[in-house]
Amino acid sequence: MNPEIYLIRAYGRDDGFRCIPWGIVSIASYLKKRGYKLLIADRKEGGYSLRRITREIRGRDIAYVGVSAMTCQSQDAAFLCGHLKKMNKNIILGGLHYSIYPDEGLKIGDYVFKGEAEQSLLGFLQNGPGAKIYEPRPLLSLDDIPLPDEELMKRLYVNKSNFTIMTSRGCPYACSFCLDRKYRPERIRYHSAPYVCDLIEMMNKSFGVTGVFIGDDVFTINKNRAIEICGEIRKRGLKVTIGCFTHSGIDDLELYEEMKASGFSGVSLGVESGCDEVLQAMNKHQTVAQIRKTIEVIKKSGLRINVMFMVGNILETEDSLKATLALARELCLNGWVSYAQPFAGTAFREDCPKYGRIINENPATYWNDRISFVPHGLSRRQLRYYRNKIAVSIKAPVR
Ligand code: SF4
Questions:
Q1: Cβ proximity of 145 and 139 under 8 Å
Q2: CATH number at 158-393
Q3: Is 354 exposed, middle or buried (0-12, 13-18, 19+ CB in 10 A)?
Q4: Whose CA is nearest to atom 7 of ligand 1?
Q5: DSSP characters over 117-150
Q6: ipTM over 0.90 threshold
Q7: What's the gap in Å between 171 CA and the centre of ligand 1?
């Protein structure tokens, strides 16, 4: 008989982007379809206390407990693993944090699965342990992952008005503040348009979801595919509002008009800075002129726009902060502003010693509103001053 598995997302402070734990939902649905018994729990959004998890594990013959964590959730993961060890459980670590720091995972658990783990975990369960650390094995066809299992989904908190889905994996860009290419596949893989619409339809009919946010890194990167999904949404008459991320330089009016006509209400865009030198240092592949043009095109389509700014990156100066503030005032849009965070696994982190000082060495507290890095020539007070000025120039994010 196949072993039973319990997968948990650890708790970490919510930084605004609320999302079900898609990593463990995908793995669980993939394994369940192949005959494994699974339970999932979300400490971040789902109200799974230690007592509840303990009770559920005690009442079953669980062979492995998997704990997934991003860096901001790693403290809770360590706490959880300490408790699970006392229960004599075999512990598997996964998620972004342990993909970057596998040795840290082995200090608190038995095995570490890096990156995409559907196939590697299946192989592990079929053949038994053969190593302590397992490398990523990205799926080539994402539709091999079945639609999320409804019984498993019922165990999670579902935000009906703004439910985040993932319809692709991978990003062609390499922004310096984002996870380095060596930790994530560059090649983009997509769910098919029928799969995406089946998912939206299922969430609408079975869970009452009326608003969806497509959390793909850049949904608009493949125009033909985005238009195909829009067509499928219209063909099925799906009545949900939709949002997604786009990127400056993707300034195709036909695409945005098609999205608007299919129920998209708005898009979110990483503007980051009003200074070309800083944008270049971020390897953002966009200029201020491209930002302006893209926003102009999106506005013409009638879609709403949320913009994201980031202050305190490398090469930031008081002049670049002033330029970002001026751009925020000029655009006068909705959105967010955050401080650049020196996350492990990013090119930005590698460059920090050369361009400034890391003043917060606790990665579990790399929150958007906390200063963790101060570029040379600037003070915390200046960063805080301009961040707050930018914050009052933009309005609260809209759907
Ligand atoms: S920040 Fe967004 S666009 Fe840039 S590399 Fe990361 S996912 Fe891609």
A1: yes
A2: 3.20.20.70
A3: exposed
A4: 217
A5: -HHHHHHHHHH----SEE-----S-GGGSPSPPH
A6: yes
A7: 6
CA separation, residue 262 to residues 42, 179, 234, 372, 379 (Å): 32, 32, 6, 41, 47
Q: 243 C-alpha to center of ligand 1: Å?
A: 17
Residue type, 345: G
Average pLDDT over the chain reads 94
Q: How many CA atoms lie within 13 A of 166 on its CB side?
A: 20
CB 149 within 8 A of CB 121: no
Q: Cα of 188 to ligand 1 centre, how many Å?
A: 12
pLDDT band, very low/low/confident/very high, at 182 (cuts 50, 70, 90)? confident
- In sequence order, which residues have a C-beta less than 8 Å from that of residue 270 and are 6 or more positions away? 175, 245, 247, 248, 284, 307, 308, 310
DSSP for 145-173, written as a single string: SPSPPHHHHTTS---SSSEEE--EE--S-
- Dig out the tokens for 293 from the structure: 């043009």
- State the CB neighbour count (10 A cutoff) for residue 296: 11
**Helix runs in the chain, H state only:** 22-33, 50-58, 74-86, 96-100, 102-108, 118-127, 150-153, 193-207, 223-236, 253-261, 276-281, 288-301, 318-331, 347-355, 380-393
* CA-nearest residue, atom 4 of ligand 1: 175
Superfamily for the 4-134 domain: Cobalamin-binding domain (3.40.50.280)
CA distance 357 to 64: 41
One-letter identity of residue 168: S
Q: How far apart are CA 70 and CA 51, in angstroms?
A: 22
Q: How many residues does the chain have?
A: 399
Which is more confident, 29 or 44?
A: 29
Q: Where are the domains of the chain?
A: 4-134, 158-393
Mark 276-295 as b/e (b = at least 16 C-beta within 10 Å): bebbebbebebebebbbebb
